[in-house]
């Protein structure tokens, strides 16, 4: 027990503040909130002078998330989350919710001067073999989920990098089997949620179905999710996959290859999966295309439909027969932590010439900035095929609004990622990176290939992902928020990340 006299005094003064009507208007001082929290849940609350606080301070992918919460709260039960949320709502305390900490949007999953709820200790993984799902605590990383399911020859539809968290299940989510099963949100059967008033509810197709729909894209605007139930699918225990590296000299053919994947391979054979990817390293002035390529079946070579990946001259490949955990491990092992990151995202209908040109323009832009310390630039054009959209509709619908624009064409979300060493370079580089994206968007509009969707999970600071779901869906999201959070707690007191548009 670490409840001190000071914390009890702070709790008393906080409660006095509530009695005097402090639940509206200015948020409560974070230190007062932390002392009050420490008073009721001392074993789970960590103040800035404690080792656990320091470890959690560094538990983010990007340095753009380095902020100074007044304390870190690491609950290990849903009930503790509920008690804390009740307290925060009563005292008017601000807080942030962190899954795996992989959003680079400043403040998306961290906060200055409020409470950081880290979900790490919510780490259950329980397989339900009868009903084909796995119940996963919100603090798990994807590697743990694959590791638990692989021995049972089961696979969920979650991300592809072992260290990344589960935030994708509130935004979109591309996975190895997405061409067959759709996005992560469409394979999330149930969310266990703590609402603003501290009530614990389940949201699924039968219970609170409006909340279930809203969480499928609605991010942290409705509650703190403590557990996800992901549908599981049987597989043979191994698949064929790895990374294929194509050199810059082959970029023209690589662009054709990516287009072929977007519009033919991913559409005609739902067992295909690829994450087409270009990158550029400023220090060496080297550009290449390192793409994850997977065939979701226990084969010993790529089938004919995926042979184009090996027909274009390549410099290296890690393709082999392996488990999903092994693939997630390989992806995760190439990731750097602690760098400054800016990411931008926009969407187009798949178009060979546009996609070819878009990377050439981005590459020229990167080369012009090669002297920025630690500069690495990436472009990842990922397809949303008509079947992915259809899966979303068939599995209960989601908030993304893609069904409204479905025209039987592949939509490509284009992630532009920029890494560099120094945070001081962030304001200028973000401005210029955004201007580059606007130039590409203008070109896409001129060519008639622009699509308005902004995928929340890869969106950058200042991009209004939820507004891109369309007016009707935004209105529906607002009405769900009004029903489950009538005093707008998750808009006022959880300020970070992609919020519901105000108008
Ligand atoms: C290296 C890397 C690899 C990636 N690979 C993939 C991939 O293969 N497929 C894919 O689709 N995406 C991928 N992404 C994108 C990734 O899915 C998103 O960045 C996602 O939001 C990360 O989730 P997180 O829990 O780690 O992030 P966080 O930054 O912790 O959370 C993101 C947002 O979700 C909210 N949130 C998180 N957990 C909860 C909760 N329990 N309750 C309420 N709100 C919550 C947070 O408040 C925050 O606003 C990748 C990102 C990186 C950096």
From TrEMBL:
The keyword Membrane does not apply. GO terms for molecular function: FAD binding; oxidoreductase activity. The keyword Metal-binding does not apply. Pfam families: FAD_binding_4. InterPro entries: FAD-bd_PCMH, FAD-bd_PCMH-like_sf, FAD-bd_PCMH_sub2, FAD-linked_Oxidoreductase, Oxid_FAD_bind_N. Residues 1-21 form the signal peptide. Keywords: FAD, Flavoprotein, Oxidoreductase, Signal. Residues 65-235 form the FAD-binding PCMH-type domain. Belongs to the oxygen-dependent FAD-linked oxidoreductase family. This is FAD-binding PCMH-type domain-containing protein. It comes from Aspergillus ustus.
């Amino acid at each position: 027990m670490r409840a001190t006299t000071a914390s009890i005094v702070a709790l008393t003064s906080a409660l006095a503040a509530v009695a005097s009507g402090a639940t509206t208007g200015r948020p409560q001082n974070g230190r007062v909130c932390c002392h009050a929290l420490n008073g009721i849940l001392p074993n789970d609350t960590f103040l800035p002078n404690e080792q656990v606080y320091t470890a959690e301070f560094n538990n983010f992918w990007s340095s753009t998330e380095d902020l100074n919460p007044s304390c870190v709260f690491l609950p290990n039960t849903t009930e503790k989350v509920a008690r804390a949320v009740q307290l925060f709502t009563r005292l008017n305390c601000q807080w942030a919710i962190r899954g795996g900490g992989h959003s680079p949007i400043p403040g998306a999953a961290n906060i200055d001067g409020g409470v950081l709820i880290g979900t790490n200790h919510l780490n259950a993984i329980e397989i339900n073999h009868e009903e084909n799902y796995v119940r996963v605590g919100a603090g798990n990383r994807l590697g743990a989920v694959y590791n638990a399911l692989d021995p049972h020859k089961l696979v969920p539809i979650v991300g592809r990098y072992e260290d990344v968290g589960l935030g994708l299940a509130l935004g979109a989510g591309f996975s190895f089997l997405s061409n067959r099963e759709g996005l992560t949100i469409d394979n999330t059967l149930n969310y266990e949620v703590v609402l603003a008033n501290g009530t614990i509810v389940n949201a699924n197709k039968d219970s609170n179905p409006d909340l279930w729909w809203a969480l499928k894209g609605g991010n942290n605007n409705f509650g703190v999710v403590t557990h996800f139930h992901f549908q599981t699918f049987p597989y043979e225990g191994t698949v064929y996959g790895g990374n294929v590296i194509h050199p810059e000299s082959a970029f023209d053919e690589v662009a054709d290859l990516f287009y072929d994947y977007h519009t033919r391979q991913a559409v005609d054979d739902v067992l295909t999966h690829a994450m087409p990817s270009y990158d550029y390293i400023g220090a060496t002035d080297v550009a290449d295309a390192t793409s994850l390529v997977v065939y979701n079946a226990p084969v010993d070579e790529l089938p004919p439909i995926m042979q184009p990946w090996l027909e274009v001259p390549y410099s290296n490949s890690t393709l082999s027969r392996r488990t999903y955990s092994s693939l997630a491990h390989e992806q995760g092992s190439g990731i750097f932590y602690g760098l400054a990151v800016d990411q931008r995202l926009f969407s187009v209908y798949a178009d060979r010439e546009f996609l070819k040109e878009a990377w050439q323009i981005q590459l020229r832009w990167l080369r012009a900035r090669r002297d920025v310390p630690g500069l690495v630039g990436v472009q990842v054009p990922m397809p949303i095929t008509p079947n992915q959209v259809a899966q979303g509709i068939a599995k209960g619908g989601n908030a993304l609004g893609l069904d409204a624009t479905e025209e039987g064409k592949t939509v490509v979300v284009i992630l532009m990622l920029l890494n560099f060493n120094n945070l001081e370079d962030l304001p200028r580089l973000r401005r210029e990176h955004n201007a580059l994206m606007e130039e590409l968007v203008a070109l896409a509009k001129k060519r008639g290939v622009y699509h308005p969707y902004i995928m929340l999970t890869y969106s950058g600071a200042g991009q209004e992902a939820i507004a891109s779901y369309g007016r009707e869906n935004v209105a529906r999201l607002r009405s769900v928020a009004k029903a489950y959070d009538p005093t707008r707690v998750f808009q006022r007191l959880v300020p970070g990340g992609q919020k519901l548009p105000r108008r």
